[in-house]
Amino acid sequence: MNARMTHPEEWRECRVALPAHQNWLVLDLRSEKPEAWAHTLAGQHLGGDVPQQWHEAFAADLLWYWGAAVRQGALCAAVLAPQDGPVVASYTVRELTVPAESRTVTAFRAEAECAPGPYFGDGQVLTEVELPLGPALRVHRQEPTDPEADSGTVVEGIAHYVLPRRYPTALECRLLWTSLGLGAELVKVADELADSLRLV
């Protein structure tokens, strides 16, 4: 998965190696006709022998994830959908606007520790890690999609806040999923994706 950039001048592409044995669908964030793109990708993913309402629903899901990635200014994004099945996880990489004095893992940890929650399971787990691209803060948590609601969907996710050694910038790499039974597998995937991240 590649994303072409024009700024900053020091690097041009963000690259992530999506696991080949899984069915990842790359979101075309530069598409000028996202509805047509979503329907084309839905057709390729589901095949022609499915009810039209399945096709429409999957295309709508793709558009939702596409819109969310575009709104947050993602450099690249993809969704994980088993063959002929629905989306079970989403992955985005975005560049963060962070003052130079705050581009430290310690600052990222302090900000994460102040996040209000609520969190479920083991709470919010913060780990400092070394990635090939540079040092990072790894944040693993489960939280409600709507903190104000009495009940609702719980989303689990792992975010890596990365400080590339060669470039004066910061990146957020985030894998999110709502099928909590897939957590053990997707935790490993999140770490693999972060390890593969490159700026070129």
Automatic annotation (TrEMBL):
Domain of life: Bacteria
Protein name: Uncharacterized protein
Organism: Streptomyces tuirus
